[in-house]
Amino acid sequence: MHEPTASSPDGLGPVRADLLIRNAWIVTMDDERRIYRDGGLAIAGDRIVAVGPSDVVERAVVARETIDGRRFVLTPGFVNCHVHITGEPITRGYVPDDTDWRTNVFDWLIPTYMAQNPAEEALSAQLAAVEMLRSGTTCFVEAGTIIDLPGVVAALEQVGIRGRIGQWVQDRAFDPAEDQAQLTAAAIGRLEDQIARFPARDDALLAGWACLVGHNTATDELWRAASALALDHGLGVTAHMSPDPADPQFYLETTGRRAIEHLEAIGVLGDHVSLTHAIHLDDAEVATLARTGTRVTHCPMTAIKGAYGASSAGKFPEMHAAGVAIQLGTDGANNANAQDMMRAMYLMAGLHKDARRDASLFPATSVLEAGTINGAAGAGLSDRIGSLAVGKKADFVAHDRDRPEWVPLLNPVNQLVWSADGRGVHSVWVDGKRLVDGYRMTTIDEERLYSDIEAAADGIIARAGKAVSSAWPVL
């Protein structure tokens, strides 16, 4: 049994708590993976002060507010380790779903990103944050803001989500007329500025991160600088890599090594680095990831929509067997088209079972780890979030059992991964604050946000030189 804190700071009485939730199912994701059928969770300020059997917790705390949690399954908040919060949420679903990877990225997504203005980028970030919170994600790692990082941070602060954020950085001179040294210096300068401007303090919900575009867009010098900055400041590096055979092919042609092997050769891999997609790898690259402790962010929703080959070419079972830390991401709203981590977990659990005809691959327990504790480690926050334990931040989710997908409740882990989805998230706390209450945000006017997004979307699409296509007549 996970004993709750037994006394107050002065040692003279019970723990004083701001909130006690009692009589709930609790999936702790703690070191022993304890699950309480009739559990209690108490928080004071931004921290968990007690968790365990309801009767034990109730005896140990005196709370200002008590909630009967019989209706709920409590879990840690999910951690989304790769999401595009700007550009795409505000144009969700307008990209045709029959485009190949290159057409999708270069003909549709990049023009869309560049067509938004700072006000629209802030709206997009808020929409992404609201969708994540309302489906149980309490922390995210951004793929990269395009235009106005301070404006995006200010917009996110209004919502209250936890995140690791940064401007999308690249430096490779593809045009011979460009000054490579100048491009690299400017890119490194942006990284240094955002890390200094948004430091990763213990009380900071939002902190700067090294968000490289990845693929073939970063020089070795930029990779080394990003890695060094991350290590010096206790941060991480996130970058796209090998969703398509074009990435390993580029590195083979220019360095004589495949992408992962080259990154190891220049000394930038390690557990501070998360590579997103990582589908087109060979066995040596898998071994390199395992040997260096480098993390992989699997985005199964994007992979199946974009026909990346995760089921046919992806070596995710081999990575998992080798000990590579796999975490989950939802990617963009014109790729995965949704920011519901529970949908991503469902796909991760099933995709590789079917591809390999091996039902033992990625059991629900491993998938839930990918969405919680692995993600917390990928965000550099494993000491603060990812599990429900005394001393950790009060970032948690109340899933509503009063729904058909939760009845009967026999195995909460199986039901989290295979039965439920984010639509059953009733309430969400981040840093001890209740940001979602009864399926509605408490920090932002959702109706106004949705109205503003609807009004802005057509303008972005027009400025990008695109149009919403439909195979069927829209009258």
Please provide a written account of the structure:
It is a single chain. By secondary structure, the protein is α/β, with parallel strands linked by helices. The protein is built from 16 helices and 18 strands. It has helices at 54-60, 101-115, 118-134, 149-159, 180-197, 220-233, 246-255, 259-265, 283-292, 300-305, 316-322, 341-356, 364-371, 373-378, 412-419, 446-463, and strands at residues 15-27, 35-44, 47-53, 61-68, 72-76, 78-83, 137-142, 162-165, 206-208, 210-214, 237-241, 273-277, 295-298, 326-328, 396-400, 425-430, 433-437, 440-441. The strands form three sheets. Strands 1, 2, 3, 4, 5, 15, 16, 17 and 18 form a nine-stranded mixed β-sheet that branches. Helix 4 (149-159) links the parallel strand 7 and strand 8. Helix 3 (118-134) packs parallel to helix 4 (149-159).
Can you give keywords for this protein?
37% helix; alpha/beta; 475 residues; nine-stranded mixed sheet; single chain; disordered N terminus; five-stranded parallel sheet; 16 helices
